[in-house]
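Format notes (please read before filing issues)

Several people have asked whether sequences and structure tokens are stored in separate files. They are not. Every record keeps both together, in the order shown below: the sequence lines, then the token lines. Line labels are part of the format and must not be stripped during preprocessing.
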Amino acid sequence: MDFNVKRLAADAGTFLSRAVQFTEEKLGQAEKTELDAHLENLLVRAENTKYWTEKIMKQTEVLLQPNPNARLEEFVYEKLEKKVPTRMNNHELLGQSMIDSGNELGPGTAYGNAMVKCGETEKQIGGAERELIQSAAINFLTPFRNFLEGDFKTILKERKLLQVKRLDLDAAKTRLKKARMSDARAAAEQELRTTQSEFDRQAEITRLLLEGVSSTHAHHLRCLDDFVEAQTTYYAQCYQYMVDLQKQLGSFPSSFSNNNQSSVSGGASISVPTIPVSASLPSVSAGHGGSTASGGFSELRSSNGSRKARVLYDYDAASSSELSLLADEVIVVSSVPGMDTDWLMGERGNQQGKVPITYLELLN
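Then the structure lines:
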């Protein structure tokens, strides 16, 4: 019992000594042992690493999951150590709506079939997005979080202990200065040697931990490379899915001008690694080209002559009066008095029949 009382009294005395030393330092009434410049620089670097790791993690989570309510739900499940319920992402929800719409409107119709194909592509993109999020969580966010919850917490603990040892050292220095009697001075000198040794030892431990931040940077660099690779794969997949969708939709009638259709089709055939972002989109000049093409059909109808035309898309004849077409073949077209302005008479060898002008591109 007496031992415990003495121990508590000693601890209280040590705590009071540290409190007095800290207060006097803040008031400028006591000297403070400064850490060496190298250790101070290491501390600053560790703090900066912690700050930017937290910020990058937060922004990455916002990028991968823009919905704050969903992020909060995931955080709660993580803290409860429960599995987050699987839910469809925005691309998958849109895709399912498109598929349901296409099936309701009639998958046998051009519009219904196109809607189903768009929906399937949106769901593919949603699946690719899910893979990106999973990869980023495992290879990028988890290592960052492990640093904050592991290594940096250890650094903080040892840094606080270094602060305690520094206060003990400076308090011992103060007592030595105030000691007047030889016995008191000898005890103060012994205390100073002990506290100096403990401070130096703790400073070395803290320094070694702080120097380990360099290894953390190297590890996070590899994680960053993995994250970029995952994003590259994701965007390449999305691009390829949309290119394939463009090719499928090319078999349907379109209200766009002929030159615009040609521009889109041309863009779809360009490979992923070399295409610029805007290359697959119709250019402004293409719109003017559409007017030129439309004018060409008007001239053809007014002249009652004939012209060669390239077929843009496959077309299956709906009746015996129409001519079936194959993409990229060249046929001869002419205007027949009284015929609907959306149609021309097409000839391929001995075959003849009506053809829709939206499937044609006039050749010079």
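For reference, the curators noted about this record: The longest strand covers residues 306-311. The chain has a mean pLDDT of 81.
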